[in-house]
Amino acid sequence: MTLEEKLRESSESPYVSKFIEFFEGNYKRDIEKLVENYPDKRSLEIDFKLLEQFDIELADAILDSPDILIEAAHDAVEQIEIPSLELDHFSPHVRFFNLPKAHEPLVRDISARHLEKLLAVEGVVREITTVMPKLKVAVWKCKHCGNTYKKEQDDNTLKMPSFCECRHRDFDLVPDQSEFIDSQRIRIQEPLEKLKGNEQPSTLDVFVSDDIVNRIAAGDTTRFVGVLRLNPPDKKKTVYGRYLEAMHLEETQREFEEVEITSEEEEEIKKLSARSDIYDRLTKSIAPAIYGHETVKESIIMQLFGGVKKHFPGGQVIRGNVHVLLVGDPGTGKSQILQHANIIAPKSIYTAGKTTSGVGLTASAVKDDFGEGGWTLKAGALVLSSGGICMVDEFDKMDTEDRSAMHEAMEQGTISVAKAGIVTRFKSDTSILAAANPKMSRFDRHVPFIQQINLPASLISRFDLFFMIRDVLDKTKDEAIAAHILKNHRTGERRSQYKKNGKAFTAEEELENEISTPPINSDLLGKYLSYARQKVFPILCDDAQKVLHDFYIGLRDIGRNEDSYAATHRQLEGLVRLSEASARVRLSDTVEKEDAERAVRLVRESLGDLVTDPETGKIDYDIIMTGQTHTQVTNMRQILSIVRDKVKEGQDMVPLQDVLNQAEGLGIETDKAKDMISKLEKNGELYRPRHNFLKPTQKG
C-alpha cells in the first residue's frame, strides 16, 4: 500500500495535530501578524528545513503526497487559537520553501516520477501572461427552473452539474455568486549557466494564483516550489503535457558570476592570476584556431572580466559592462571568435543577423495562444542573458527598428516596453559583443569607417571598443596564416584518425597539437571569469587616475585645437571599465598604473583605425558621433555659406557651377563638393528650384 493510500484510509487528525504543534512552536507570531493583515496578506511561508528538524517523517510525507498533507496544514492553521482573531473567515495559504537539493531537479530532468510530488524548479522567466480571473467555485443556474448548484473546480476541466431536478441539463454560470481568484501563466526555461556546449534549454509552464501573481517579470531568474501536474492530452492521445502548480516563488540572482567553484579550482585560479604571462595566456585561450587578432582577443578578455557596476545615492547606476564591436572583411574569423567567446562565458547567448527580431533580441508584449486570449510579455536574448554576455553576429543585417531597441539596453541596462496598456521595464544588464561586415563587403581605406557600415552613429558610440578587421594582401602574413590553418587541419585529422584507431600521439605530434590547444581550458577559464566577477571589486589608485586623466584631456585638447571632438565622457568611462577589468585578471583589489596603461593602449588602437580622418590623419570622434569628419562638416558649412551669401547679395537662385568654382577656390575638390551638395539636399538645407540651380531652404 502506498503512502498516499495509507493517508487516505487513516484519519487526518494526527497530521493536523502535528502541524498544530509545529505552528505553535515555530510560527505562532507569524500567524498572529497574518491575522492582523488578513485578507491583504493571505500566505504563511514555511521554511521546509524547520519542518525537517521538527519531524522528518512529516516532511517526507509532504514531498511524496503534497495535496493531502498541505490540506492538513491548512486545517491546522485555521485551528490555531489567536486571541485577537475576530475574522468571520480566515483561510490563508500555506506555502513551503527551501526544499532539499534532492528535490530541486533541472527542468530537463523532470520526468514522470515527479508527478504529483512537491519539488522546486529554478528557471528564467521567458514569457508571462497578464493576470486572468480563474474560476474556483462555480454557481450554476438552470435555464428552465432557476435552481442553482455550487461546484468546486479543478485546474483542468470545467465542472457542471449533470442534470437539474427538472431533468434538464442547460445551465448558465452566475458570475456574481461564483468565486474567482487571480491566475497567471508563466513559461520558464533553464538558466543559461546550467547548460553545457550547444544544449537547447528545456521549458516548463508554471501556474501561479491569488496573492503570488505579478511578483516577477520576464527575464527574472526564479525558483518555484509546487506540485507537478498533468495537462489533459489533445483528443485521444496518450501523451500528456505537464505543468507546475506553484505554491511559492522567489526571485534568485543567479547571474554570470554565480558558478560553483571548488576549493581546488579556486587555488588553481589564484596561481594562474599570479603568473607574469597571464594576459598572454588568456589572449591565446580565445579562439586559438584563428591566427592573429591579438588586440581583438585581448579586448574580449577585458569584456569577459568586465568593469565594476556602480550604484550611487539617489538610484543612479553606471554600467560595468564593456561593449565591443568588430567590423571586418569576410573570412577574417569574426564569427568564430564570437562563437568561442560564447563557449567560454558561463552565461551567454549567441544570435545572428536576420534570425533575430526586436522581440527575439529585446522584449515585447504580444497576443498569442500562450496568453489564453490575453497579452504575453516575452523576454528576448538581451534580457535572458542579463548578468552575462550576448553575442550578436551579422549585426549590420538586422532591421533598423530592431537595432534601435538596443540603445537603452546598452547604456541603461534596461529595456522598456509600452504596448497594449502594459508598461514595464526589463533588466538587461548585458555585455554585447557584436560583429558586422562593411556595406560593400570590403573596406575602402580612403572612406571614413562610419560611412562603410550600415549602423547609426548613435548606436556605434555606445560601444567601448570597435575594431576594423581588414583582410590585408601581405605575403608574409598570408604565409603565416596559411601555415597556421593547414597545421590546425592536420592536427584535427590526426585526432579523428587516431581516436578511431586507438593510436596515441608521439611527443613531436603533441608539440604540434599545442597550436590549436588553448593554454587555459574553457571550463577553467569560465570559472576564472566567474570568480573574478564575484570576488574582485578593484579601486583606482592615484597613478592610474592620472594616466586616464592625462590621456582623456590630451584627446580633448586635440579637439579644442581643431574645433572638433576627439573624445567624449563615454570614452573616459570606457577607459575606467577596461582598467577595472585588467585589474580583475590579476584578482587585484587595486587598479594599478599598468591596468590604466593597458586600457589606454586598447582604446588608442581602437580609435586609431576607426576615428582617424583619412584626409587629415588626425583623431576625430565626430566621425562616430555624427557620421562625418570635422573636415567634411567644415566644408559643408562653407558650401552652404556660399549659396546663402549669393542669395543675400540679391540672386534669386545660384548656378551650381558658380558654387563649384568658388568651392574649388577654397580647396574643396569638385567631386567632393558635389557629394556635399547632395548631402545638404538630403538634410533639407538646400534644394534645386531648377536644373543646375541651388537655393537655401527657408529655415536657412
What secondary-structure arrangement, pairings included, does this model have?
Blueprint: H1 3-9, H2 13-26, H3 28-37, E1 43-47, H4 48-54, H5 56-64, H6 66-79, E2 93-97, E3 118-129, E4 132-142, E5 148-152, E6 171-173, E7 179-189, E8 203-209, E9 221-231, E10 241-251, H7 263-273, H8 278-284, H9 294-305, E11 310-311, E12 317-318, E13 324-328, H10 334-344, E14 348-352, H11 358-361, E15 363-367, E16 375-379, H12 381-384, E17 389-393, H13 400-404, H14 406-412, E18 414-419, E19 422-427, E20 431-436, H15 457-460, E21 465-469, H16 475-501, H17 507-513, H18 522-535, E22 539-540, H19 542-562, H20 569-585, E23 590-591, H21 593-610, H22 622-626, H23 630-648, E24 654-655, H24 656-665, H25 670-682, E25 686-687, E26 693-696
Helix pairs in contact: 2-6, 4-5, 5-6, 8-9, 9-20, 19-20, 19-21, 20-21, 23-25
Number of domains: 4
Oligomer state of the chains in this structure: single chain
Give the second-level CATH assignment, the architecture of the largest domain: 3-Layer(aba) Sandwich
Mean of all residue-level pLDDT scores: 78
What's the arrangement of strands in the largest beta sheet? 3-7-8-10-9
Secondary structure class reads alpha/beta
Largest sheet: 5 strands, mixed, barrel
Q: Residue share in helices?
A: 25-40%
Task: Write up this protein.
The structure is a single chain. By secondary structure, this protein is α/β, with parallel strands linked by helices. It folds into 4 domains: 3-98, mini-chromosome maintenance (MCM) complex, chain A, domain 1, CATH 3.30.1640.10; 107-251, OB fold (Dihydrolipoamide Acetyltransferase, E2P) (Beta Barrel), CATH 2.40.50; 256-603, P-loop containing nucleotide triphosphate hydrolases (Rossmann fold, 3-Layer(aba) Sandwich), CATH 3.40.50; 630-696, Arc Repressor Mutant, subunit A, CATH 1.10.10.10. The strands form 7 sheets. A 5-stranded mixed barrel has the order 3-7-8-10-9. Strands 14-17-20-13-21 form a 5-stranded parallel β-sheet. A 3-stranded antiparallel β-sheet has the order 24-26-25. The longest helix is centred in the last third of the chain and has 27 residues, at 475-501. The radius of gyration is 33 Å and the shape is globular. It starts with a helix and ends with a strand. 36% of the residues are buried.
